Amino acid sequence: MADEDDKNVDRNASFSEFGWEFQTNAAIVLFIQRIEDASSVRVEGAHEDIEISLNDGTVVYAQAKARTGNEPGKGSTDRLDGALKTLADDIKQGNYRELIFVTNDDYPFGKSHDVSDLHGGGTLRFDELPDGVQNYIREKGAAHGIGDDAYPVMAVSVIGFYGDDRDTRHKHIRAAIQDLLSRLDLGRRGDVNDGLLRDQWGTMMQENAGTLDTDITLSKEDFVWPVIVMLCKVDTDDKDFERFDEEDVQDAVREYGSIINYHTQKFEFVTKVSTDFDRYLADNSGGRKEVRTRYIDERWGDYVDILGLGEIGDGETREIVAKLIMRKVLRREDVIKRVKDGVNLGN
Asked: Which domain of life does this protein belong to (predicted)?
């Protein structure tokens, strides 16, 4: 659990909750920064506050220490000492790739060892710190048995996280999420709400941390799934539905939503639509999006019986529902490929 500013904080529930929330949000930031090389993440791992397992079998260990008071730098030397003590134990595991001290304090080493490059957030490797700060850390580390070979993989990460206002407290975390979406070329897509994504990831992290078996981690695949779900939301305003009355389309979504969701998650149907579309795409010219729209418009009737839509509503309703299902299936296929490629999942 993330540390606090003084000895009484452990008895203060609000301070403890703040430290826990910082730890969870720090895990989100550290994980998405390394998502291409990572396989899973765990808050409250077997050895450390945050453990990020990498594809090569090594682990990123991060010790989270939160400033809860309104005076930056106060108590920071104690937090640093506590972090080094725990990281010294991580070194004994022998499987570490990175050893990180993560905090929300702009003065992680105290005001007498100020590093202005960390003000407002940022990450610096040990060898990027001023010589005086390096020596200070070495002195403290030596007291915990940390040898010279560990320092090259050490780093300090400052993540802005403070205040009662939710938007202020989360702005740096949301900025990191926006950066990830931009890297995936999803930054301009209005379907992805970075605030909602942060909330979902926070809940997932906390639920995983609540399991007693520390071998149970949050996989990268599970982590990115909420992004895919948000992106696969069907846009009923697009030109596939422009000749229909908007209210009729919305009524179809409300009334037949369970049918739509069922078939878009049914492996056999998804495979058939994807295979049929790939054949159509090979035989037709134009961009993928253009051909997809044409395919849905021309072939929706082929799936009415397969989907069991013969008895619902009228002909127009059947067409709307069939098109919604087809569009969601094909859009999900494109999105999954883009996201999986972007985070190096399954490659």
From this structure: Bacteria
Residues 6 or more apart from 56 whose CB is under 8 A from it?
37, 97
pLDDT for res 14: 58
> What's the CA gap between 209 and 130, in Å, rounded?
36
Q: How far is CA 287 from CA 185, 292, 295, in A?
A: 18, 8, 12
Any idea which residue has 């930031």 for tokens?
29
* CB atoms near residue 115 (< 10 Å): 19
d(CA 217, CA 146): 28
Q: What is the pTM of this model?
A: 0.80
pLDDT in tens, 225-253: 888 878 766 555 555 566 667 787 787 87
Number of helices (H), then strands (E), belonging to the chain: the values are: 11, 7
Q: What's the longest Cα–Cα distance across the chain?
A: 78
Residue 234 CA, chain-centre distance (Å), reads 22
Residue 219: beta bridge partners? 40
- Counting every residue written for the chain, the total comes to 347
User: What are the DSSP calls for 116-147, one per residue?
Assistant: GGGTTSEEEEGGGS-HHHHHHHHHHHHTTT--
Angle of helix 315-343 relative to helix 246-255, nearest 10 degrees, comes to 70
Domain spans, the chain: 9-212, 239-343
Residues 319, 325: Cα–Cα separation, whole Å: 10
Distance CA 222, CA 208 (A): 11
Residue-level pLDDT at 5: 47
How many CA atoms lie less than 13 Å away from 343 in the CB half-sphere? 29
Q: Over the stretch 267-297, which tens digit does the pLDDT of each residue have?
A: 788 888 989 999 999 999 999 889 999 999 9
Cβ neighbours of 50 (radius 10 Å): 27
